[in-house]
Specification:
By secondary structure, the protein is an all-alpha fold. The chain has 6 helices and no strands. It is flat and about 85 Å long.
Amino acid sequence: MNRSVLVTLVAVIQLLFGLLCAGTVGYLLVLTRSKQILADKDAAEAVHGLKIGAAVVAAMAVPVLASAYGLFKRKLWAWIVALLVNVAGAVLMLWGPVLEHERMDRSDITFTAFFLVMVIVLLLPGVWRSFFSRAPESPPDTAVPRKA
């Protein structure tokens, strides 16, 4: 069964986002060794904060990359993980502005829009049906023909 262009696009975007998260983890870990950070009088706190940030982003990168892999394979679990990750991302981005009345800057708006668009696209009938309506795969025919 052919995969729709929209399903492929969702998988590619999820993969790119996962790679962006993984790259951010690497960048934050490299920053922990930079001369500018280590020369600061509060270097230990800065390095600790960067490591915490790397761990948080890594916690996002792992399910995003896993779901991207599964979306390419058209696995239902991958659609569920992708939906949960993107809903969680949208909720976390909206948490401060809605509950604590914080002001959103341009990057907050961009990430919130990204997560909301991904949720909407994942919930489009053409996308979710391709994960729910797959016919179960039949096991290979291993029966030995009988001799007459």
